[in-house]
Structure formats: structure tokens, C-alpha cells
Amino acid sequence: MDFFYQSPLGAIHSLCALIAFISGFIVLRNTKGTLFHKKIGYVYGISMILLNLSAIPITNLFNGMGFFHLFILMSLPTVLVGLYLPIFGRHHTNWLNNHFDCMCYSYIGLITAAFAEIIIRMPLTRVVDSMTQYVIAVFVISGLIGLVGCLFINRYKVKIQRRDNN
User: At how many degrees (to 10) do helices 95-120 and 131-165 cross?
Assistant: First the structure.
């Protein structure tokens, strides 16, 4: 079990990821704009912020800051903007659509990162010859998962919004 968590910080990071995964799924599956949506949305947003912040000091994969840390620069602003818009940004044109996009894409990023985490923990040493090939394989597989998620959200965005307006 030590291999999985590697430290108490890793356990906190994993717990935040699990909470974000579950709460994000609940938000996506339920009607938007309700009090329930707002409460679970805050749980999702806070867990994503803590997930990103806890990822910064986790440096054991590359013995320092690694390439995966760059994704914090995409994830954290997306979540922060997604939370900002309904709380303070309702005066902005198209705020609701932008909120929806930010939160959906942050969830896709979470799923993509989860798959990357699972893949990076798999012993692929028989398949690849170097760490570079290993990282490339992780990015390709995770990138494809993220692309499928983006296509899914874009394809069903109108359907989700129409469902919630009825």
C-alpha cells in the first residue's frame, strides 16, 4: 500500500481525486442550477482545488518537478474560473455557458489524469525500453481518453442543457 500512496500527502491527493470524481459525476448527472447542484458543485470545486494544490509538492516520480506538474497550470485556472462565474461573474455575457465549459473540461481533465495515474503505476517495463517511451505512452493513451471526453461533452452539450431547461 505504501507504493500507492507514497506519503500522507499522496493519500490526501488520492482522497481529493476520489471526492472530485464522485461529486463531479453527480453534478453532471443531475439538473443544473438547483440547490443540490450548487452544494455538490462546491464539493467538487473545493476538492479539485485541494487536488491541484496537493499535487505541487508530489515530486517522487521524476525526483523533482515533472512534466505532469504542467497540467496544474491548466486544471487549477479552469476550476477557479468555473467557480468564479456563478458566484461573482453573472454580469459577464455568456457566463453560464462558460461555467458549463470550464467545469466539464475540468472533469474531463480529472478523468484523463486518473487514467494517466493508473497507467503510470502499471509495470510496463516489458513493453517500453525507457522512461521517455513510458511517459509518451502515458500521454498518448491519456490524451486519447481526454479527446473522447471532449468530443462527448461537445456532442451532448446541447442535449444536457435542453434536458435541464425542461
Answer: 150
